Amino acid sequence: MPLESYKPISLLAMRLLSGTFTLSLHLPSLFMRYIYLSALFATFVCFYTTSAYAQSSPASKTPVLVEPESEQDINALSKAVVQIRTPNSTGSGSMVVYQGRLMVFTNRHVTEGHDSVEIAILKDVHEPAVPTFRGELRVFSAEYDLAVYEVNEDIEGRTVTAEQLDTSDNPWEYQLPQLEFIDADEVLSRGTPLALLGYPGLAGDELVYTAGIVSSVQMTDFNQKRMVAWYRTNAEMSPGNSGGIALTNDGRVIGIPTMVAMEERTGGRLGSILSIPLAFAVMQSDDLLTSWDDYYNPDDHLNPEGEPTYGQHTLAGSQLNLPLTAGGSRSASYLGELCTGYAAENPDAILTLSEVTERLTIEFNASESTKDATMVVRAPDNRWHCNDDREAGNLNPGLYLEQAQPGDYQVWVGGYQPSDFFSGNVTAYSAGVDTTTAEASGGFNLNGDPLYGTHQLSAFFLPDPQTIEVVAGGNVDISETIDGSGCTGFAAGNPDVRMHFSGSTAGLKAYFVADNPTEDATIVINTPDGSWHCNDDAHGSTLNPMLDLGTSGEGRYDIWIGSYRQGNYISGKLHFTEMSVEVP
After folding, report:
1. PANTHER family given for it (predicted)?
2. What is the pLDDT of residue 182?
3. Are 97 and 205 in contact (CB under 8 A)?
């Protein structure tokens, strides 16, 4: 789209200060000139990452992806990114000088509900960001994850102006660097290198960068103009990055990395970057809001303040299995690109964490495999997380929140179509429990990572049987762990295998065959309804165990393979089948 096709942002001028803020900047000049910026970046986390990050190191204006030429260029570029702080979260943002006014751009979810935020700046690129300025809300977009704050004073109440930050000779010893934007009509191709700058929570208050490529491009028609809506990338994103910048390898800003989609089975991740041309086009639209009250209380939105229909539940070292009815008439699409479907007004449930956990897992499995469910979760920091299908070929949603903070997680389970109501089960548990302690105490650790992986099966799977190699045995006494069950043997503290099953079947079976037929193994399974099942010998002519799960239903199965004698470890194969079988 030609730069000349942009029009003056007169609407924004009216909205920003309700008549007191005069803004005559034209978008062509915004894209044609260098302007002061410090960045926009957002995460949905969904999903969230456990990858390590390193602080920015000297490089050229093409900072991460080419041979360094100048330390000064990357250092100046790093100083463009500011950290935004609210009472309960941190993120990243960008400071732009519009006609002598300092405005900070960020993602709506970073500052949601806050009229005032604290701005921390990078005075030294090798030191953490320092709280320096204060920003006041001016406008935000409900449909696009975008918010704008104005900076008029520092945290001590002293007036700050754009002119003062034009050079480093000011009370804050801080100078805004200049950045260049990608052309409005330019479309980056797949494989184009890019870099991200922001303040992920894993790195504290340090600025870090990650590198990757453009994985795909999504176009859109906005106000009758064809432009890039989203760039997808494999570059790592992490909680707290929200608000940073995405750059080409020649240092031009391409957009606002906004959210991450994660696939649980493979651990695959794909980040989404809101293109900068679309972000500025949104600033000309009619849907900008100036008050959080206009955003929180419309009649057709979800109500975070409502009483949960299925109660409040504390997650404390055990798995929650909560039957409920999904669906409703309130659309979740206003929350962002990954938020779809229709849910009830009030939360279906509130899940409470008492301490930080490495990963919070929340999944829903519909009773009927043909039902298409969606999930929305509002975290304690007021950020929204959404999922439709947790993996390819599975219509059930799941959210996996890494480094989940203590507090209340409000959960909505919706249907893809309005007023489509159906039953199902929410499964939730927190990871990070000390598995050594769990095993020493004589109990199974439902929160533990499975020793031989997490697997997915759907009804009528092929090939049949499905086989997983396992070494059976451990130090947990099964007879003491599952009281009154008659189960015997010894197994590991963590599950050997975790299996998610979808669809309807009349004859799902799990059995173990030892490599040495003289070895005596046992099998224990915790089914989606939370009940325990075990077996020692499948029949009188074998020492191998089998459980016929029949119609136990969809959901998560945690499976332990034990040995009859403590300290005896048995190699063999765990099988899943829907056919009649004679266990050898």
Report:
1. SERINE ENDOPROTEASE DEGS
2. 92
3. no
